[in-house]
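Work Package 3 (structural annotation) set out to generate three-dimensional models for the target panel prioritized at the project kickoff. During this period the team completed the workflow that converts sequence records into discrete structure tokens, so that structures can be stored uniformly alongside our sequence database. As a representative example, we reproduce one entry of 296 residues exactly as it appears in the project archive.
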Amino acid sequence: MKRLLISVLLLTGLINTCFTQEFKARVTVNTQKLTGADKTPFTTLEQELASFINERKWSNYNLKNEEKIECNVNLIIESATSEGKCFGKLMVQLSRPVFNSSYSSSLFTYQDNDISFTYTLNQPFDYDDNSFQWDLTAIIGFYMNLFLGLHFDSFSPQGGSAFYNQSQAIINYSQSRGPGWNSGEKRSRYWLIENMTNPSYNAIRSFYYSYHRQGLDLMHKDIDQALDNILKAMEELNGFNKTKYGVLMYTLIFTAKSDEFVNVFSGASDEKRNRAYELLKQMDPLNESKYAKLLK
């Protein structure tokens, strides 16, 4: 009997270790801009939102604890009515570990300015992959699937397709819900996922793979080859931008990575640093002064 109990405990521990949820999210609900309203319910909302993201199973993948996907989700409540209608912003950030290092590379950083939902204390977090349940869970579900898509794209070519398709499904059933979901806005959830599912924009997805898997992940083993691969990935992305200028997800690469690009090439040879600078100033002219640090 004792041996059986030990076996059950060991098996339970193994299951808990090997079959965990995907996300390790840091979740905050910020009410600093909220005046004249009871902020107490938002403490509960923060706890419930963190549980919804971190304790739900979002895919069929079984990730170990050390493989959990790290992200930040900061919900900023700017105004709320007495009936519980909330308006605000959502700031999200996704990171990816670099192989054989303690460094995490930022994959995606974005501020969504069109957040609205109705919340009452202890409201159930109803969510369904294929039908609308609640504004807030639809928004969060959209971003969690986008995060999974970006994460798996960075590890294998076109690896995130299933998750982009799920985000697209959420777009399809949420378009009647108002701002943030529609194609008429230049920056919206619609365009984020359109960019990642449009075959004409596959160069963006290829960059996520080449830069991370064939670049950063290789740096522990062969820095020169890794930097050459990164430069090649940048050249291909630059070529894409010359034919498809102004694509939203293209610009967000630099929002997430402009500082990292400088750090990656800061210790490189003069030739590689100069080459990186010439590419980066073409690709992201708004940050040319930042990239000029590569010219020693």
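The CA atoms of residues 215 and 222 lie 9 Å apart.
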